[in-house]
Design goal:
Elements lengths: L2 E3 L10 H13 L5 E4 L12 E5 L3 E7 L7 E4 L3 E6 L2 E6 L1 H16 L20 E7 L4 H7 L2 H7 L5 E3 L9 H9 L12 H11 L19 H5 L13 H8 L5 E6 L5 H13 L6 E5 L2 H13 L6 E5 H11 L11 H14 L10 E4 L7 H8 L8 E6 L26 E4 L1 E2 L4 H11 L19 E2 L8 E4 L3 H17 L7 E5 L2 H13 L4 E3 L3 H5 L8 E5 L8 E6 L12 H12 L2 E9 L4 H11 L1
Parallel strand pairs: 1-2, 4-8, 8-9, 10-14, 10-15, 11-12, 11-13, 13-14, 16-17, 18-23, 19-21, 19-22, 20-21, 22-23
Antiparallel strand pairs: 2-3, 3-4, 5-6, 6-7
InterPro entries: DNA_helicase_UvrD-like_C (IPR014017), DNA_helicase_UvrD/REP (IPR000212), NERD (IPR011528), P-loop_NTPase (IPR027417)
Keywords: ATP-binding, Helicase, Hydrolase, Nucleotide-binding
Protein name: DNA 3'-5' helicase II
C-alpha cells in the first residue's frame, strides 16, 4: 500500500474523482511509492493534484479532472471549453497544467548536483526519469476516443498521458494500472534512488519539511536568469522531517489536536509546520507558548528561520501573562506570593471580568505542555478564536519535572477537546540508540510507561529510530577543579576535530556550578555563555559561536550534538528527591544528539547507578 500524504481520511476538500483516484493509488501501488496530494510548489504556489515518487521509476505529476463527456465542448493544446453549473467556461488544458508544474519542479531539482548525472553527455540532467499526465475519472477510454479522434490526440492529450475511468476501477490489475502511470514517461534510465536522494527531492519540493534550514521557496518564477544562476546550491547535507512526521503534520486537520511525543520525536518540527500552514490560512496572529525562557528563545529563532516572525508570536507563559497585563492596563494583584504567580491570577481574573479579551488569536500552540497547570491551560484555551478553534498541545510526560503540573487532570477539564484528536509519537529521532538506552535505563524506575484514555496523559516508553553512535561515558573525579579541567580538554579536542562550539552544551545541576564552569572555560579561552539570568535566557542565540552552559530545567526542549552533563556530585542522596532529580537528569541526557558525557566529583546514589550503566 502506497504512503499518501496527507492521509486521505483527513482531506475534506477533494472532488469525487480525486478521492477515487487517490484510493486507487493507495491500494494498487506498493509500499515503496510515495504520493502527495494538493501540495503547493513554488512562489506562485502551483498545486498539482498528485505527485508520485518511486525510487526505481521516478517522479510523476498528475492533474485530475472530473469532467463528463457530455459537458466537454472543445479542446485545444492550451485550453478546454466545458459546461458547468455556472455556465460555459474556458479553462487550461490539464496536460499543460501538469507540464508547467513538472518543469518548474525539475528546473529546481537540477540545481542539486547530487540529483544530476555525472556523465559528460548528460551532465546537468536529472539522474532519474520524470513525467506528467492527466486523469479523467468520469470518462472511459472508448468515450474519449470517440470524442477526440486518435489522429488529434497526440497534439491535444496524447493517449499514453491519460488514465480513463475504466482503467482505474477497484478490479483493475495493479500491474496494468502501474503500467499506465509509467507510460507517461518519455525516458527510462538511471539507478534506483537512494534514501538520501529521496530526502533531497523532498527538501527542495517541500521547503516546509526542512530541518535547520530556511523554508522560503527556492522556486522564483519571477526571477531573471541572472538571479537564478547566482542562487546558492543546495547544501551537501540536508535534513528533512521523517515521512511519518510529514504525514502527521499534513494530516492534522482542524480543531484541537493533541500530540503525546517522547523526547526527540519531532514535536517541535510539527509545531513549525503547523505554524507555516496556519499562517497562510488565518488572519489573526498565532500564539506559541512554552514554560521555559530558553525554550521560548529557541522557538523564536526556529520561527524566524521559517520567516514567520510577523505572524507567529512566541512567549514563555509567564512572559505572556505579563504582556497581557501591560497591554490591557491591568494591575498585578497585591500579596506576598511570587510576582509571576500573582500575574497569572491577575490575568485569569481580568479575563473573567472581560477586562482582557478572549479570542485574541487565530491559533494557539503549546510546546512542552506537560509543565502547564490546569488553570493555565483553561486560560489559554479561551484565547483561541472560536471561528478557527485551532489548538495544538504537545507534551511528553516523561519530561515533566514538577509533579503538581504534570497533566494529571483530564484535558477536558481545561477545555481541551482531545477525544478522537490525539496522536502518539514513540520514535525518538534525536538521540542515538546508545544515548537513549543509557538515559532510559538510568531513569527507568521513574518513567514506567502507563496507559491512559484520550482525556488523560499516558507515559510513553521511547523507541529509538535506529541511529547509532559512540557509547555515553561517565567520569568521576577527585575534585571540582579536575572535573572542570577535563571538560576544557574535551571541548578543546572536539573543537580541533571540527565541532562547532554552538553544537556543545554544558548542562549543570546547580547555579554555583554553572558559574564555576563558565569561569574555567573563559580562562581557557573557550567562548561560552552561561544562561542563568532571565535576560540572558531571552537573548539566547542558538547560532552564536559559543558553548552554552545551562541548567537541566533550562535545557528542556533544546538539543545539541554534544552534551556534557556535569556536577552530579552535588546532588543529595535524599530518596524523596530522587523522582524529580532522576527525571531532570533524563531530560539533560536526552538533549544530546550524538555524544553524551556525564561527570561528577563526588560519589552518591546517582553516580553509583551511572557507574553500573557505563560498565555494562
Amino acid at each position: 500500500m502506497a504512503t499518501i500524504i496527507p492521509s486521505l481520511t483527513t482531506v475534506a476538500r477533494m472532488t469525487r474523482g480525486e478521492r477515487r483516484f487517490g484510493r486507487r493509488l493507495e491500494s494498487l501501488l506498493e509500499e515503496d511509492y510515495l504520493v502527495w496530494y494538493d501540495i503547493p510548489l513554488g512562489r506562485r504556489r502551483r498545486y498539482p493534484d498528485f505527485i508520485i515518487l518511486h525510487p526505481a521509476r521516478g517522479l510523476l505529476f498528475l492533474e485530475v479532472k472530473d469532467w463528463k463527456i457530455e459537458t466537454l465542448r472543445s479542446i485545444t493544446p492550451d485550453s478546454v471549453v466545458i459546461d458547468t453549473q455556472e455556465g460555459r467556461k474556458t479553462v487550461s488544458n490539464p496536460l499543460a497544467q501538469a507540464r508547467q508544474c513538472a518543469f518548474a519542479a525539475i528546473d529546481q531539482l537540477k540545481r542539486d548536483p547530487q540529483l544530476t548525472q555525472s556523465d559528460a553527455r548528460y551532465q546537468g540532467k536529472l539522474c532519474f526519469p520524470y513525467g506528467h499526465g492527466v486523469v479523467l475519472p468520469n470518462i472511459t477510454r472508448k468515450q474519449w476516443d470517440q470524442v477526440v479522434p486518435e489522429a488529434e490526440q497526440e497534439t491535444l492529450l496524447p493517449a499514453q498521458r491519460v488514465i480513463c475511468k475504466d482503467e482505474m476501477q477497484t478490479t483493475t490489475d495493479p500491474e496494468a494500472f502501474q503500467q499506465r502511470l509509467w507510460d507517461m514517461f518519455e525516458y527510462r534510465f538511471g539507478e534506483k534512488l537512494s534514501v538520501p536522494q529521496i530526502d533531497r527531492i523532498r527538501w527542495q519540493l517541500f521547503p516546509e519539511v526542512r530541518i535547520d534550514a530556511p523554508t522560503q521557496d527556492l522556486f522564483d518564477d519571477d526571477a531573471s536568469e541572472e538571479d537564478a544562476s547566482s542562487e546558492p546550491l543546495v547544501p551537501d547535507i540536508v535534513r528533512v522531517m521523517d515521512l511519518h512526521q510529514e504525514q502527521l503534520a499534513r494530516s492534522m486537520g482542524d480543531g484541537h489536536r493533541v500530540i503525546h511525543g517522547v523526547a526527540g520525536s519531532g514535536k517541535t518540527l510539527i509545531l513549525g509546520y503547523r505554524c507555516l500552514h496556519l499562517a497562510r490560512a488565518i488572519s489573526k496572529p498565532i500564539l506559541v507558548l512554552c514554560f521555559y525562557i530558553t525554550l521560548a528563545a529557541r522557538l523564536r529563532s526556529f520561527i524566524a528561520e521559517k520567516g514567520l516572525t510577523e505572524t507567529v508570536k512566541v512567549h514563555h507563559f509567564h512572559e505572556w501573562c505579563g504582556l497581557q497585563l501591560e497591554t490591557y492596563h491591568v494591575d498585578t494583584l497585591p500579596g506576598n506570593r511570587p510576582v509571576w504567580e500573582r500575574q497569572v491570577e491577575s490575568v485569569i481574573q481580568a479575563v473573567d471580568a472581560a477586562r482582557i479579551p478572549r479570542a485574541q488569536y487565530g491559533a494557539v500552540m503549546i510546546d512542552e505542555g506537560h509543565d502547564f497547570e490546569q488553570a493555565w491551560l483553561k486560560l489559554v484555551v479561551q484565547m483561541i478564536d472560536p471561528d478557527t478553534n485551532s489548538l495544538l498541545l504537545l507534551y511528553d510526560d516523561a519530561q515533566s519535572i514538577y509533579q503538581k503540573s504534570s497533566l494529571k487532570f483530564p484535558l477536558s477539564s481545561a477545555g481541551v477537546q482531545a477525544r478522537g484528536r490525539t496522536t502518539i509519537l514513540k520514535l525518538n529521532y534525536r538521540n542515538t540508540r546508545e544515548i537513549l538506552s543509557f538515559a532510559y535505563d538510568f531513569a527507568r524506575d521513574f518513567l514506567e510507561a502507563q496507559d491512559a484514555d484520550e482525556d488523560h496523559i499516558p507515559l510513553i516508553a521511547p523507541e529509538v529510530a535506529g541511529v547509532s553512535g559512540p557509547k555515553p561515558a561517565f567520569r568521576c573525579f577527585s575534585s571540582a577543579h579536575d572535573e572542570a579541567r577535563y571538560l576544557v580538554r574535551c571541548i578543546q579536542t572536539w573543537r580541533d576535530e571540527g565541532s562547532e562550539l554552538n553544537s556543545i552544551a554544558v548542562v549543570y545541576t546547580g547555579n554555583a556550578q554553572g558559574r564555576f564552569f563558565h569561569e574555567v572555560l573563559r580562562e581557557a579561552g573557550i567562548p561560552n555563555r552561561c544562561l542563568q539570568q532571565s535576560a540572558d535566557k531571552r537573548r539566547y542565540d542558538p547560532h552564536a559561536d559559543e558553548v552554552v552552559l545551562l541548567s537541566r530545567q533550562s535545557s528542556k526542549g533544546l538539543e545539541f550534538d554534544t552534551v556534557l552533563l556535569c556536577g552530579l556530585g552535588a546532588l543529595s542522596n535524599d530518596e524523596e528527591q530522587q523522582f524529580q532529580e532522576a527525571r531532570l537528569l533524563y531530560v539533560g541526557m536526552t538533549r544530546a544528539r550524538r555524544r553524551l558525557l556525564v561527570t561528577s566529583c563526588q560519589a552518591n546514589w546517582y553516580t553509583r547507578r551511572l557507574t553500573e550503566l557505563a560498565s555494562a
